[in-house]
Amino acid sequence: MADTNWTIRAREFSNCNCSYGCPCQFDGLPTRGHCWAVVGIQIDTGYHGTTKLDGLKVVSIAKWPGPIHEGRGEAAAIIDEQANEAQREALLRILSGKDTEPGTTIFNVLASTLEKKHHPLFSKIDFEVDVDKRRARLVVPGFVEMRGEPILNPITGKEHRARIDIIGGFEYKLAEVGRGWAKALQPMRFDLEDSYGHFCHLNLSQNGVID
Fold first, then answer.
1. Which residues lie below 8 Å from residue 28, measured CB to CB, with a gap of 6+?
2. Number of domains into which the chain is organized
3. pLDDT tens track for 76-96
4. Can you give the residue range of the structural domain that contains 99?
């Protein structure tokens, strides 16, 4: 059983190095054999025990040398500098998969695949995300820059709209598929160029995805 109850309702933009659609979303192997990713999360409402998390932002930078499920990953968490000490501790416990039923959230699952966790970072996070419009912008000065946009039809130039609907998942129920660009500067360095992105609402608790 989880030691502390928590809930977050948030908006997320995730950009990885796979082609549009990302085979990993369907239990397939990553497009290029490895996984690099940047994820931005805007918490609209949330709590961890008695600690409120409303309005805070978090960013994750991660990379794996092969498919995620094979492990050997490396990750760093960036926490909103506006978070107080209790909020920082709460967010780090959630992001590291603690206080969570095993295998029930994206945070817990990914944490189990990491062999290197960088010391947490605390910074100003400028993040805007509109799930329905499939647009996002993220800047963490000195650490990462990212943007997300809709996929465009190569013939007409019109916005292409596709969704991923997952039943029994551990991250989201419905995600809008788009594309993204990201530049991670530290503590890991890599570039993502016009690759897979998704925009979604996160409704998670210590027991997994909630309505």
1. none
2. 1
3. 999 999 999 999 999 999 999
4. 6-209
